[in-house]
Every structure is written in structure tokens, then in C-alpha cells.
Amino acid sequence: RRYLWTDAFGVLNFVTLALREESTRNTYLSAAGKLIDTVHACLGSPRSNTYPMAKLEPGMTSPTAYRGLRIGKLNAHTPSDDGMEYDGMYWHYLDKWLFALTRYAQVSGDRECLQQAAALVKQVHPAFFSGEGLYWKMNVDLTIIPGLEFTGPNSDALTGWLVYSVLNTQLH
Q1: Contact present, 50 and 25 (Cβ < 8 Å)
Q2: In 80-93, which positions are buried (b, 16+ CB within 10 angstroms) versus exposed (e)?
Q3: CA angle 163, 62, 171 (to 5 degrees)
Q4: What is the mean pLDDT of each run of 10 residues along the chain (172 residues)?
Q5: Would the pTM count as exceeding 0.85?
Q6: How far apart are the C-alpha atoms of 116 and 107, rounded to whole Å?
């Protein structure tokens, strides 16, 4: 069982441990890399045919054939709820994951991981950004959840900008 929020902090913890002790650096970076691959394989794929995810559009890349990462809730429903009971895609989980990928790439030198983070941004940003702000939660197929049509000002836009800035700095 995977949970995106917890896994993002797991990657960050492995990276921090890798920096603390040179003799175990490769062990912890390897563990972080395996966790990243596992998350992409599990949460980057639909849980079943009943709860489909959006397929990649032409020109998009992903470790799977789908856009985005589910959060990994045990309960699922189509459409998802406007609360936190059912699976979906949460912006504040995705931004933690993007930061974890960027931090791992920075320490390990893994440019492919940076490219995966940039690809994830390109996959989900058009769905989450309304022109007025960011939706905090989307269905797993990246459609708007009834009751969450209003984005309004929220801290997700600020954290998105910060994470995008950190990622962009590492890419260039």
C-alpha cells in the first residue's frame, strides 16, 4: 500500500540520511530511488478499471501510461468527494512529491528524475490551474470534482510557485 504524502517524506528522509554518513550514502540513495520507482508504478496507475486515470496526451512522458499520481487513499469513488475520504489527486501532495524528486535529483545527480518531475508538472498543471488559482483536489482522471469548482486564492498557488522555482533552478 502506498500513500503519496508519506512516500514524499520517505524520499526526503532517505536523502537526508544519505547526506549524514558518507559510508551509507549509496545505500540510502538507492533506497530513495527504489521508493520513487515504486510510487510511480503504483500511484501512477489506476487502482482498477472502475476508477480510470487520464491517459498521457501526445508529447507527454511518464513512467506509466497515465497522467499524475493518485494519493493512495483506501476508499475510492467516481466522482471523488469534496472532502478527504476518497482517493483523488491532491495538489498539496503532488507538490511535496515534486520537491522530493527535485531534492533526490540534486543530491544523487539523477537528471532523469528531474525530467520525471518536469514531466509530472506538464501532465497535471493544466488540469489543476484554473486561471484564477489551483484546485486543491481533482478526480483521478484529472476532472473537476462537483462542489470544488471554485479555486480562489489559496496557499497551494504559493507552494506550487516555490516548488516550480526550485525544480526550474535544478533543471537549468
Answers
A1: no
A2: bbeeeebbbbbbbb
A3: 40
A4: 95 97 96 97 92 90 91 91 91 96 97 94 92 89 91 81 94 92
A5: yes
A6: 16
